[in-house]
């Protein structure tokens, strides 16, 4: 590593959206050599940490460890971490991202499902007093009550509690579930920064009706947050190497007063989910278990759409208008 000081600055990393190429970058031979050496060293220290726990990476837990420190540093930058911020990290693994958070002065609650990794990360950061490790399956963990209590403990009696942030190199198999679980929590979290499969990252931030993957989750994301694609991370930055590249996305969470105006969020998403049950069907058909076709058609025309509209043609604002028109018609009839 010492060899690389002053030469290894990631020249291919610029502000805005960029891409981490691991050892495959187009920079000078020396820089490539340094990147390879530094990555090998990171792989070695990851292996050493794993060996100390007699641990082989578990595929079923999505254990692909980050071996490029600069990616961790840039994820922390993307989260705009300030000293004293409370950060929830999902799946700390060997603690490489945790380490960048500690360096930035954050206080971290790290939830790890693998007992061996929970022990490892607890031992690694015990002396800092900045990391609390919780050995739990994040999906079953009571995130709101735990984080609210932690925020309240930290805030003075007078000032309103600062919201926490979430950061994670997420196991790919729980991505959708975690996104759905966290996005509506704008009173607890201000930002969520996730490293995901690149394809999922692109799909989640592109929520326009023209997008082929336009689905209820696209509407959910824009209802509750402002998403942004930050940068791409190529597969050779992980150990073991996955079959696909990754991407980092940020969700700036809205607070309740900023949500689109609907009478009930629950009934709004019931409408959206029902609408997409038959993506190719006309709304007046797919919504017929909620409203008669005539009612849906009248509501559609009252907001300036054709009575034959299909779900993939409506923007979030138009779904909101449709929901409100249907609610109004139901209450007046
Ligand atoms: C992709 S690895 C990332 C590890 C580390 N943060 C890094 O960047 O190198 C995913 C981590 O999440 C953990 N994990 C998997 N499923 C989990 C769950 N349901 N709840 C909490 N942690 C989980 C795995 O054990 C693993 O440590």
TrEMBL record:
- Domain Ribosomal RNA adenine methylase transferase N-terminal, residue spans: 71-255
- Keywords for this protein: Methyltransferase, RNA-binding, rRNA processing, S-adenosyl-L-methionine, Transferase
The answer to keyword Glycoprotein applying to this record is no
What's its EC? 2.1.1.-
User: Where, in this chain's numbering, is S-adenosyl-L-methionine bound?
Assistant: 64, 66, 91, 112, 137, 169
Can you say what this protein is called? Answer: rRNA adenine N(6)-methyltransferase
Against InterPro entries, the record matches this protein to: KsgA/Erm, rRNA_Ade_diMease-like_C, rRNA_Ade_Mease_Trfase_CS, rRNA_Ade_methylase_Trfase_N, rRNA_adenine_dimethylase, SAM-dependent_MTases_sf
- Show the SMART domains listed in the entry: rADc
Name the domain of life this protein comes from.
Eukaryota
Q: Can you tell me which family this protein belongs to?
A: Belongs to the class I-like SAM-binding methyltransferase superfamily. rRNA adenine N(6)-methyltransferase family.
Q: Which GO terms describe its molecular function?
A: RNA binding; rRNA (adenine-N6,N6-)-dimethyltransferase activity
Cross-referenced PANTHER family: DIMETHYLADENOSINE TRANSFERASE, RIBOSOMAL RNA SMALL SUBUNIT METHYLTRANSFERASE, CHLOROPLASTIC
Q: Does the keyword Methyltransferase apply?
A: yes
The protein's matches in Pfam families, at most eight in alphabetical order, are given as:
RrnaAD
Q: Which SUPFAM superfamilies match?
A: S-adenosyl-L-methionine-dependent methyltransferases
Q: Which organism is it from?
A: Ceratodon purpureus (Fire moss)
